[in-house]
Amino acid sequence: LTLGTMGLSNSSLGYLNYPTQVIFKCCKLIPVMIGSILIQGKRYGPLDFAAALAMCIGLAWFTLADSQVSPNFNLFGVAMISGALLCDAAIGNVQEKAMREHKAASSEIVLYSYGLGFIYLFVIMMVTGNFFSDFAFCLQHSKEAFFYGFLFSLSGYLGIHFVLALVKSSGAPIAATVTTARKAVTIAISFIFFSKPFTIQYVWSGLIVVLGIYLNVYSKKHKLTLNDIKHKIKHITFNGRTSISRKYLVEV
């Protein structure tokens, strides 16, 4: 799944321009929520789906405003980025399930995910005959391939640990919400480093993203989770030995 989501997403750029790819990636929150329903049996209300939809629309609009080129649609590229979204829908939920059921640490998830992914990719490159030509290209551009590659790998390693910690503490959909919302933050920060024209479309799209985040927080605030129920039941004793709060009984 790790190889699928990264490989298909990067390879799709050979057929789609970057804004189009980002627009598709902005919509990954909805597949992740559907994946959590199918894989983990979770349930979501209308507010959760409304929040996801608002964030996807807002970020897609944000990306279109930031784009200086028109979206380019190639059917093969669309198929590849759609495959990456399907992998995204499963990977976070599989990680959450593994960490919950097997008490796996985030470093263990990273080791097996990327270690096995490296083996799969190495075999694919050897079979297709691309390994030696690609390695020779890296030697010709050693600074970009090895130095920048090291920095990219280090930041990616730290980032995936933060994401897995978020998956473990809050669940895959919340992690997908945060990683989706950071795209808007990335574009906003880009105004600081790069001079670019400002349009009112940024404001409206940003407000839609904020609406999605608010709906998500509001939904979580007013939802009694299974852990809350277990915690309340654990502290309820009948036969008069413990005073029972009427509010707790109503909630349970």
Describe this structure in words.
- The chain has twelve helices and no strands.
- The protein is 80% helix and 0% strand.
- It starts with a helix and ends with a helix.
- By secondary structure, it is mainly α.
Question: Mean of residue pLDDT?
Answer: 77
What structural category characterises the helix and strand content?
A: mainly alpha
Main beta sheet, described? Answer: none
Low-pLDDT runs of 5+ residues are none
β-strand amount: under 5%
Rg, please? 22 Å
| First-residue to last-residue Cα separation | 38 Å
Number of helices: 12
Shape: globular
Order of helices and strands: HHHHHHHHHHHH
Topology:
Blueprint: H1 2-11, H2 18-26, H3 29-40, H4 46-66, H5 75-102, H6 106-128, H7 131-140, H8 142-170, H9 172-193, H10 200-221, H11 226-234, H12 246-251
How do you describe this structure in short?
This protein is mainly alpha-helical. The chain is 80% helix and 0% strand. The protein is globular and about 55 Å long.
Defining traits:
252 residues, single chain, mainly alpha
